[in-house]
Amino acid sequence: MKVLVSDSLAEEGVKRLSSGADVDVITNLSPEELIEKIKDYDALVIRSGTKVTADVIKAADRLKVIGRAGVGIDNVDVEAATKRGIIVLNTPGGNTISAAEHTIAMMLALARNIPQANAALHKGEWNRKKYTGVEFFNKTLGIVGLGRVGAEVATRMKSFGMQILAYDPFVTEDRAREMGITMGDLETVLRGGDFITVHTPLTNETRNLIDEEEFKIMKPGVRIVNCARGGIINEAALAKAVAEGTVAGAAVDVFTKEPPTGNPMLEQERIIVTPHLGASTAEAQINVALAVADQILAIARGGLPTNAINMPAISPETLAVMDPFMKLAEKMGALLGQLVGTGFESLELVYSGTLAEKDTRPVTISAIVGLLGCVMGSGSVNFVNAQRTLKEMGIKLLESKTESANGYSNSITMKLTKGGNTTTLQGTVSGKEKRIVQLNEYHTYIPSEGDMVLAIIEDRPNIIGPCCVVLGEGKINIGGMHVGRIAEGLPQLMVLSVDHLANDDIMKKLCAVPGVTSAKMVEL
Ligand code: NAD
Ligand code: MLT
User: Fold this and answer.
1) 3-state SS class at 492
2) Nearest listed ligand to the Cα of residue 288
3) What digits encode the pLDDT tens for the residues 74-107?
4) What is the pTM of this model?
5) Model pLDDT for residues 183-228, shown as the tens digit of each residue
6) Atom of ligand 2 nearest to the CA of 279
7) In the CATH scheme, what is the code of domain 442-524?
8) Residues near ligand 2 with C-beta < 6 Å?
9) Other C-beta atoms within 10 Å of 455: how many?
10) Which CATH number does the domain 96-273 belong to among 2.40.70.10, 3.30.465.10, 3.40.640.10, 3.40.50.720?
11) Is 2-93+283-300 a CATH 3.40.50.720 domain?
């Protein structure tokens, strides 16, 4: 794997990556230079500096993964990456404590005017009155976004004797109660906070979440902190509110444009600023660099990352248990694709027996990868874009679970419908063995790997022999055979495992054997 590291990454992470990949560290690339370079790499490692736009992704012919050493992925066009099947991963948690501590440092600096007093004294000005501050004790801290960083800030600020009032539509009352936090809607938090700090991601929903109107409902003299993302609080509106004195001061670590130029906040002495230092500690940088390196190396070894943004979050434990079912499902999907071809309208999956109790999401995705890979070309569909591609094709996906597995301890049933006809497969895993045990009404034995001929033949003597002769004359060795009938006199399904693919000529001869209704070569 060739890895491009395009933002500065802790040495420990570069070293770890280099233990299993070919790594180039090239920082400060212009957008044009990145577009030119990216085509040679399988993985890109970034922090917040590199903008991975749709144009970069378009040029990234062999890119498989974008690793963000940090949390925010607002500098990555995740939509474009997903479409191309590129994994986008991040390293949540690695810099949470640093970001929370920086938020608190900013709050303290803001409450006690530390940066301004420090600058004044360095200039020889001794002014104790001008820099009188306020206490945290018995004040209310309004937190918008009670995720990892927000929760760590809350825990620590309680020890200062602050009441915590938080807004986060995704946090339950129970969880908040456990943390000793009162939840409210956004308006309640904005009205109630003496200090307000934001800790949401930057999304279309959170952009300008706090704007001119929101400042109007806040307590006069409120203090504002943004160590999350530039743009959650409208920068011009904040500068104006501070200039007018309705907001006593603000502390800002992040900007809509970094480095900020011509930003009205920089003109306000009572807005303290730092250059995106939230995660800039030795500890956090090592944490995120190692976490991104480990995930990229896992992908290089054929595994899955632990923190992919554009794939379902599936624990390594679940993946280990589901691995044989995923492999079987992918092969069953590929078999259905070869039998039915393009133009199908719906895919149905039924999980039965012990499998019904498990997290079957990765199995469903594997089935889609197998199915679409076979009709669209393998490599074009992967774990990242399988569900999305199926949806974009307008194919209906149905999933259900049942207790009974048709006599097996577990089973996957897949039904592919095209023009009103449904082709059904059932497969099962037993110990190390994965096999397909039913094709439509035929109980059969189809190995989950290898090349094979599937033929429908009449139920009478002297058909199987001539078929074997045709293959033998074509120098195709038969490694296994299974013949299954529905009932005496009805057509049979013959499965011949072969050592290599038969060409069209041989298949034509096979189809011409008297008593052969149809024959198809499949590759699993
Ligand atoms: P997180 O995903 O753990 O938490 C984000 C929280 O925001 C979640 O609980 C989510 O439910 C909530 N949220 C989402 N939309 C919301 C909305 N519309 N209103 C209210 N709440 C909403 O993320 P985190 O790790 O806690 O990081 C928080 C922010 O801090 C991110 O923007 C991240 O990029 C940023 N960050 C900055 C630095 C830095 O260097 N300054 C360091 C780390 C993290
Ligand atoms: C993050 O989102 O992790 C932070 O902004 C830190 C960083 O960009 O390095």
Assistant:
1) strand
2) 2
3) 999 999 999 999 999 999 999 999 999 999 999 9
4) 0.82
5) 999 999 999 999 999 999 999 899 999 999 999 999 999 999 999 9
6) 6
7) 3.30.70.260
8) 47-48, 70-72, 95, 278-279
9) 26
10) 3.40.50.720
11) yes
